[in-house]
Amino acid sequence: MSDLAAYLGATVLVLLAAGMSAVERRGARRPIRRAGLTFALCEGCSLALLAPGTVHALTRAGAPGLAVIAAGDAVRTAAISFLMLLACALNPRRRLRRRPWGHLAVAVLVQLAMLALLLGARPRLSADGELATAASGRWLLALRVALFAGYALWALAELFLALLPQADLAATRALRWGVRLILTAICAGMLWTLWSYDDIAGMLRTGRQDGSEDVVSNSLGALCAALVATGAVLGRSDATLSATARWFRLCRCYWLLGPLWSALRKAMPYIAFPQAARPRLAGRLRLEFALYRRVIEIHDGRLVLRPYHHPAVSAWVAEIVQTADPRAPEPSDALLEAATIATALENMRRGRRFTDVAEVPTGDSARVLTDLDSEVLWLSRVAWAFSRSPLIPLVMARLREEEG
């Protein structure tokens, strides 16, 4: 289980680094991009290198176990250093953007100190992958773990403070959610770092420490990797998400227009486009063509129905609404248009024409639709009222009463 979590996290981070290096984003600041790419690559490599299966395999192959542990810790410490550089580059307040040379000096000192503490403790790697040392070296190994944990918490806190303002100020919704997921990953990283303090207690108490990562550590590492990758992909895929949302919106509108479109085509089959005019399209283009074809056919049917509009429909709808609830607001334009179409269809079936009505149908006089998408949304509301509103049957009953 520990190996599986470590290797999954490593794979996610290495693939993220490969994707960041393969896709050059216009307008991206190179220091931020390079620091993020190098952090993902180093952290992924350290997860794989410190996995228990990797340590055992390299040890059986003849590699010194302590050298493997030292190399894995060095790569992980380097990842934290690049995380610190990323935090400095992302800080929105210019006066708090420290020059990188100071952080580079701190990174080198931390690497040297961790190596010196490991050599000074003179530990040995047992067959089960644990570091063991004599009583004289316990404090040195405990100090080594505390040094790494403190350095990691510092870097994570700096990055959290740098990204926190962007959670609400990012340009798009997808980017805001991407930042929030990365902030969640930072919190999980802090928990992951704090978990290492059990190594300090174990070392001081028994003189033994897991040389490779345990199940909890590797699971938290895999969680961090998944959150970081998801946040990064979500922040970079705003166009994809917008296209997907648009596709679902078109599907919903196509479904909503169905009852109104079917009623108009049944009453006026001649408004239908000939099948020969249908182009060979696929995917979203095919859906858009079918949807806009319905819109045009509905619009043609509305034009044909103009002589059959009953002049009292608006008054009937308002009267029915007020009778049902005196405090109710005025009926919407979409409801008025739906009632007008429903009564006009009935008048057309009965051959009743009203030649003294205005040219513009009820509800359209103050509405200016500037594009086809606006027409789709408007007709979707009309179609919903036409097929779902309980007022339409009441208006139709009022029409039949007048004829009777």
Automatic annotation (TrEMBL):
Residues 246-388 form the DUF6545 domain. It holds the Pfam family DUF6545. The chain crosses the membrane at residues 6-23, 35-55, 67-89, 101-121, 141-165, 177-195. Keywords: Membrane, Transmembrane, Transmembrane helix. This is DUF6545 domain-containing protein. The lineage of its organism: Bacteria, Bacillati, Actinomycetota, Actinomycetes, Catenulisporales.
